[in-house]
From TrEMBL:
PROSITE patterns, A to Z: QOR_ZETA_CRYSTAL
Database matches in InterPro entries: ADH-like_C (IPR013149), ADH-like_N (IPR013154), ER (IPR020843), GroES-like_sf (IPR011032), NAD(P)-bd_dom_sf (IPR036291), Quin_OxRdtase/zeta-crystal_CS (IPR002364), Zn-ADH-like_protein (IPR051397)
Entry GO terms, CC: mitochondrion
Domain Enoyl reductase (ER): 12-332
GO function term, MF aspect, one: zinc ion binding
Lineage of the species this protein comes from: Eukaryota, Fungi, Dikarya, Ascomycota, Pezizomycotina
Gene3D superfamilies per UniProt: Medium-chain alcohol dehydrogenases, catalytic domain, NAD(P)-binding Rossmann-like Domain
Transmembrane segments: none
Annotated source species: Oidiodendron maius (strain Zn)
Protein origin, superkingdom: Eukaryota
Name of this protein: Enoyl reductase (ER) domain-containing protein
Length: 348
């Protein structure tokens, strides 16, 4: 097999090297998978520089999200859920490679009709946004939802899920191209949040188009950036503000008097920890996502303005991701597959 192995921390993605390694054999609880596509994440960039919270002992293969086919089943699992040839997606250390070993708990079936490219970007973003909006913010039909960084990975998932649940979506993004993408994925209104006056624009939209308490602002804020304090200026009575991430690089301080005065809730979500602290919710969330896919209400968000084909293009893909110019999920086609034709989903 070939993989991008990190033997010492690097300054940036362009310093990464591909090496030949022995292809692993399936072990007692792990499948051997041939990777067709790998999804990139900002934490990959941090990890190769030694700056991430999870740093395995050197050497290791970088990358986390992948989609591919099962080559061999675990040797000690009596009735494995997947068989040789099945198409799966998931996440485990070592996705920037031609092959990977992974246990069943981190694998899901590629939805029917989905390309490996789109499936490789599903494992982190879709459940984060579904878990946030549905489990944590209790989204209801008729709600108005403000999605920040709406053309980013979790943002585009949030736009689609909010629309599928019958909400009106105001999407923010920093460039015209990203606002156009947010609209293509279903946003009703788009706003440039690089303008300081953006909370006024949200308020004006709600004042013009909503009634009752809704005239004051939105019911839900989905925030992967670190914009809760500003967003408190344009929320309705009883609003829920979802703390998803800090893409802007700073952990915010929030004026709590506004939380009291507006009778709102600040709600955190840490999707990765559901597997440890709330296992029973994980299939509930995935079944909800698979339902939306089979109803045609959720589609893949792979970035298509530029293509990344072959392991050799991982450094370029990571550089593009770090530049903030991409949208959706930046995915590398490790193998250059052609997308399958139909679009239905299989449930868990
Ligand atoms: N809570 C959870 O369980 C969970 C799960 C997954 C991800 N996250 C977090 O959610 C955040 C977004 O993840 P993602 O996968 O959507 O990332 P992404 O695809 O890279 O999108 C992030 C977006 O943030 C915006 N942004 C604002 N300030 C930025 C800055 N200084 N540098 C870079 N981008 C900036 C950019 O949009 P504009 O250019 O339009 O401003 C960018 O498109 C990350 O912080 C991630 O760690 C949390």
């Amino acid at each position: 097999m070939r993989g991008i192995q990190v033997t010492e921390y690097v300054k940036g993605p362009l310093d990464l090297k591909i090496v030949d390694l022995p292809t692993p054999s399936p072990v007692h609880d792990q499948y051997l998978i041939e990777i067709h596509s790998a999804g990139t994440n900002f934490f990959d960039l941090l990890q190769i520089q030694g700056k991430y919270q999870h740093q395995p002992p050197l050497p290791w293969i970088s990358g986390a999200e992948f989609a591919g086919t099962i080559l061999a089943t675990p040797t000690a699992v009596k009735s494995p859920r997947y068989k040789v040839g099945d198409r799966v997606f998931g996440a485990s250390q070592g996705a920037y490679a031609t092959h990977i070993l992974a246990p069943e708990r981190v694998l899901l079936p590629v939805p029917q009709g989905w390309s490996f490219e789109d499936a490789a970007g599903l494992f982190v973003t879709a459940p984060t946004s579904y878990g946030g909006l549905v489990q944590r913010a209790n989204i209801q039909s008729g709600d108005w939802v403000l999605v920040h960084a709406a053309a980013g990975g979790v943002g585009l998932a949030a736009v689609q899920i909010a629309k599928a649940k019958g909400a009106t979506v105001i999407a923010t993004a920093g460039t015209e191209r990203k606002r156009q993408i947010a609209k293509e994925f279903g946003a009703d209104y788009v706003i440039d949040y690089r303008k300081k006056s953006w909370p006024e624009e949200v308020k004006a939209l709600c004042k013009q188009n909503r009634s009752g308490n809704g005239k004051a602002g939105v019911d839900i804020v989905y925030d992967p950036v670190g914009m809760i304090d500003q967003s408190l200026k344009c929320v309705a009575w009883n609003a829920r503000l979802l703390v998803i991430g800090f893409a802007a690089g700073q952990i915010e301080k929030v004026a709590l008097n506004r939380v009291l005065l507006k009778n709102v809730s600040l709600v955190g979500l840490h999707w990765g920890q559901y597997a440890n602290f709330e296992k029973e919710t994980v299939p509930v969330v995935w079944n909800g996502i698979f339902d939306l896919i089979s109803e045609g209400k959720f589609r893949g968000t792979a970035f298509r303005d530029e293509s990344f084909v072959g392991l050799e293009s991982v450094p370029r893909a990571l550089k593009a991701l770090g530049s903030r110019d991409t949208w959706g999920k930046v995915v590398v086609k490790i193998i250059d597959d052609v997308a399958p034709p139909s679009r239905t989903a299989s449930k868990l």
